Each structure stands twice: as structure tokens, then as C-alpha cells.
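pinging the channel bc i need a second pair of eyes. not urgent but kinda urgent?? the chain im working w is below, pasted from the shared doc
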Amino acid sequence: MKILVLNAGSSSQKSCLYEIPDANLPNKVLQPLWEGKIDWNQERSEAEIEVKTATGAVLKESIHSDSRKAHVAYMLNTLTDGATKVIGQLSEIDVVGHRVVHGGLDYRHSVIITEDVKKAIAHLSTLAPAHNPHALEGIEAMEKSLGTITQVAVFDTSFHSTLPDAAAIYPGLYEWVEQGIRRYGFHGISHQYCANRAAQILNRDLTSLRLITCHLGNGCSLAAIKNGKSIDTTMGFTPLDGLMMGSRSGSIDPGILIHLLRQSDYSVEELDYVLNKASGLKGISGISGDFREIMTAINQGSDRAQLAYDIYVHRLQAGIGSMLASLGGLDALVFTAGVGEKSAGIRQAACEAWEFLGMKIDPQKNQQQPVDVDIATDDANVRILVIHTQEDWAIAQQCWQLLQQ
């Protein structure tokens, strides 16, 4: 079975093509036959397209056009033409899987996309305006390029559909619950993949483990996973809640928003921009939301960059503490995504607060750019894992499983 995966964002789209045997689903991650990425520069109305194959072929091109669908169609053509050709024709693709950030209450599992599913994704764009519209755009681009091919929506929220009501319901008006205002949680595809991979690394049954998974990238969230199910998470009704992030504020006193609306003549749109695009590491440092640039600025003596780092660590430690309370114990702490996988300093700082629980990080292992390994000391009571998240492979797996039913 050939599975094309699309992971659409506001400024980029990543794609890969997997080939999975029809007989059984491998336990290990398969290398994609082909990988494509589009980076859009809206100011210059152009797209940077980069394609590579498992055999080492590489293509890099810039295309001037306002049409994202045209860019996607061009990238798809590299599957069947030129040095990056890996299949004879596009009709060889059996299914296309899409990462969709918000599935609301109705979509607790991956589904084959229908007109009703597309309408639901569009409706939920009000809750994930930076993500759902682009997923829908990708779905429609595939319809245009591949016709009536089967497409599957894999929702970031579905893994967190097991949250108990006490964790999911906000202490506001009860009518909010009836309106669908509740904690949904996000990064679920990544959290679920890392939980399964952690069980493999530890050679344990997932249903016997208590895990905290730390997805730390430009967006950040934690999940408390008990017996294979998400029971608590830091992101909420939208991806804005929880930890401090690259440009998102994370949790703040809602009274601040009331104060700004009353005293500073903020519009709803201005508040939305500030909280999602101009806060977090970017807002405090005044430099960037990119963690690497924050570290560079700290090394150059920036006090604001240091403050941003300190707040980030404080919020991360506090978030881990809240997940611990939900689990009542911990077998492993997992770090993943860009910062979680690459920043030894953040991993060290996050774990220092919990040494009294027997969480001991091995400094040497931590500095060796670990991937899918345990970096705790031998005598630690809690294992500490660094896992390279594989969202695209997880989406491909769910497509394969859905089509076997």
C-alpha cells in the first residue's frame, strides 16, 4: 500500500510517500520513498520546493505563483518525473493521510474524508485558525490532483478524547460544556507515537506505564499518559493554553485580557495577534521565538533573553508537576520535538526540579545528541527518554489500519 502523507501548516507543507506491505504493519519506522517540503514566502509570492528520495536524489526549486494548489501539484509531479521519480504514475497512490489539528468532540478517531468531514474541519477552523484551513486546503488540492482517491483525516485532538471530565471541563458556566467549550488538547499524534515508542525502548507493556511526554517545539505541550491513555494535557480549548511557547503566551490570568479590553482599547483581532504571534519567547526576549536564537542572545549577554529562558523553564517545571499530580507516580519522562530533542540544557533544567523523586539525568548521555535512548543514570527511579517524534509515520500507520477494516 502506497500512502502519501500531508502535514500542512500556515507557512509550509511537508509531505512523504510510504510503501507499507499489505500483509502486516511493521513495528519499526519505515523510511519514506520520497519526501517533499514547500515553504511559502507570502511577501514575494513564491514557494521554495525541496524534494529528496530514499535513493539520495535531491531537487530544490523556487516557483513564483500565488496559487498554493499549483505549488502542491508541481511538487506531486516530482513523484513521477525527473531525478526524484519513485512511482510510474500518481494513480499508484492508494490513500492520502492528512494531519488535522482540531477534530472537536465528534471526531475521536481517524476517519475517511467525506463532504461532511470537510465541513466539520472548516467549522472547527474558528478554534484552530492557524491550522485547520490549511489542512482543508491540502485536502482540496489532492482532490484536484488525484481525483476521487481515498483521503484520511488524522486528528491531533483524538488522542486526548480519553481525558476525564475533571481534567477536560473548565470551571466556568456549565452551559459552556453544552457549547463544546472544554479542554481538547493537541499534539496528540506526537504524544501517542512517543508513548508507544517509549514502551518499545523500555521493553514494557504500554498499558502498565505512567508517562509524561514533553512535546517542545515552536508549539509546546505536555501529556500525562496512564495505561496508554491520555488523562491530562496542558493545551486546552485551543493550542494557546498551557506552556510558554515560541510566540504563544500559554496560560495567563484571563483578567489580563479583560483589563486590556477595558483600559487599552485592544480589539479582539489585536489581542489574538499578541497572544498567538507576539508573546512567549518572542514577546519577552524581543528577539525571536526561535529557541536557538534565544540561546545565542543569552551567550551575548541579553538580559531579556535570559528572562525568557528562565520563564520557559519555570513554566515547564510547573507543567510537569501538574502532570505528576494526575498520574500519582512516574515511570518515564519523555522529551520530543525540536527543543525537546536538541536542547540538552532544557532537558537538564526540567529534570533538576525532580531529583528528590529519583529523576537523575546522566550529563554525559544528555550531551551526546541522543535519539530514541534512555539518558537517565543507571540508579535513577524514573527513566528519561529522548524520542524523535515521527508524526508522518504515525499518520501512515493510522491510514493503513483504517483501510484494513
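so The mean pLDDT is 91. and The longest strand covers residues 12-19. — does that match what u expected or am i reading it wrong
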